Amino acid sequence: MTEINIDTSALESMESLLGEQFADTLDFCCAEFERLGSEVLATIGKDREAAIRHSHSLKSNAAQFGASSLAEVSRVIEQNLNLDNLAEAIDASNSLMAQVTGSQTKLNEWLASR
């Protein structure tokens, strides 16, 4: 999946909730996307439990901040790891970092347009 989808209503909700701390939190969250994505790739096929944990965290963080397509890829990875479908999880992970960087770009563009 290379299409990047952002749910702006989730972003607006987080912005409303966090107020003046929103921009810094979004920056931190974008850095976490990168860290967690790298952790998924580093552990997939080596440490199943760690890969599940990292993909779950990435899925949750991405969904909370409106990075819908990143959350979906992370969900597919997590689900397939939970079902012991390593080949499918690895296949989904091939687009993970493209989703991370694409989501970071779109989130930052959205923030800049505010």
TrEMBL record:
<keyword id="KW-0597">Phosphoprotein</keyword>
<dbReference type="GO" id="GO:0004672">
    <property type="term" value="F:protein kinase activity"/>
</dbReference>
<dbReference type="InterPro" id="IPR036641">
    <property type="entry name" value="HPT_dom_sf"/>
</dbReference>
<dbReference type="InterPro" id="IPR008207">
    <property type="entry name" value="Sig_transdc_His_kin_Hpt_dom"/>
</dbReference>
<protein>
    <recommendedName>
        <fullName>HPt domain-containing protein</fullName>
    </recommendedName>
</protein>
<dbReference type="GO" id="GO:0000160">
    <property type="term" value="P:phosphorelay signal transduction system"/>
</dbReference>
<keyword id="KW-0902">Two-component regulatory system</keyword>
<feature type="modified residue" description="Phosphohistidine">
    <location>
        <position position="56"/>
    </location>
</feature>
<dbReference type="Pfam" id="PF01627">
    <property type="entry name" value="Hpt"/>
</dbReference>
<feature type="domain" description="HPt">
    <location>
        <begin position="14"/>
        <end position="114"/>
    </location>
</feature>
